[in-house]
């Protein structure tokens, strides 16, 4: 029996999008998309090749492309690449750890923090705004498209 994921899945993030189709996952992706109703999708890719364009056509509606500039222009912390990591934390630790990482400048350049829900995202925003941690914005599916586009 087909399970409807529409009411429970609000966001779909596909990392290494440039590799997904080359590894033969097109049918799997189509299968997952068939279970979703309304969702916001992010494709993350090191390159923009034909496979990414195909994937973009499968799961994005009115896509916005965000490109990193070369390292010489100061993007990506001046190191020329993105860094990604995951920290398994207890709920009472997460806000303090994020604050510490930013305050101690252990995270350099632009930082994207994924939160489990909109309330958590706004808690991060309030904390970081309170301590003047730079420009902080919450991007979520409840915002109108033009507002989301302006934030990016």
From TrEMBL:
Its EC number is 3.6.4.13. This is ATP-dependent RNA helicase. Keywords: ATP-binding, Helicase, Hydrolase, Nucleotide-binding, RNA-binding. GO terms for molecular function: ATP binding; hydrolase activity; RNA binding; RNA helicase activity. The keyword Hydrolase applies. InterPro entries: DEAD/DEAH_box_helicase_dom, Helicase_ATP-bd, P-loop_NTPase. It catalyses: ATP + H2O = ADP + phosphate + H(+). RNA helicase. Residues 1-66 form the Helicase ATP-binding domain. Belongs to the DEAD box helicase family. It comes from the Eukaryota.
